[in-house]
Amino acid sequence: MVASSSTASHETFSGASGTSTPSETSAGADAAIAGLHRIDEKVNALRASREADPDTLLDKAFKATAPALVGMVAGKVFQTLWDKGTARRNLRKGLAADAPQGLVMSLAFAAASAAFGAVISQLSDRGSQALVNRRHRKSRAK
């Protein structure tokens, strides 16, 4: 009886040591391989989308910077024109040309500037996209 109880405790101990059966190992390996296949499929899909994209790095940089530069220049032009108009208005009223604006005029400037900036940004974004598309059409025609 003593021999059988030591054998049972030995089996319990070896089972608790973390060794797994061949079917558990195979299932774990299959799951790992399936995970690697999913990653491989995602990488292949990203590569295909990158290769299908006709825009070069220069095209992407142009489409990002051109609207930003046009927006900055247009904003500065708008501010200059606004300042000249308010200076002229202040002089007509007998105030100094650089007299501070009131709350209503400040709000009007903010609203007009934001609207003007949004319009210019949209137009320059569409324009830069059109220029890139035109360049692509010309390169395909050759």
Could you explain the architecture of this structure?
With about 140 residues, this protein is an all-alpha fold. Helix content is about 85%, strand content about 0%. The protein contains 4 helices and no strands. Helix 3 packs antiparallel against helix 4. The protein is elongated. The N and C termini lie far apart (about 95 Å). The N terminus is likely disordered.
Rg on CA atoms, Å: 35 Å
- Main sheet record: none
User: What proportion of the residues is helical, as a percent range?
Assistant: over 70%
Mean pLDDT: 83
- Structural class, by secondary structure, is mainly alpha
Count of individual beta strands:
0
Globular, elongated, flat, extended or rod-shaped: what is the shape? elongated
Percent of sequence in beta strands: under 5%
Distance N terminus to C terminus?
A: 93 Å
The topology string of helices and strands comes to HHHH
Low-pLDDT stretches: 1-17
DSSP helix count?
4
Primary descriptors:
single chain, about 140 residues, mainly alpha, 4 helices, about 85% helix, disordered N terminus
TL;DR?
The chain is an all-alpha fold and 142 residues long. 85% of the residues lie in helices and 0% in strands.
Describe the secondary structure blueprint for this structure.
Elements: H1 2-16, H2 22-52, H3 57-92, H4 103-141
Helix pairs in contact: 3-4
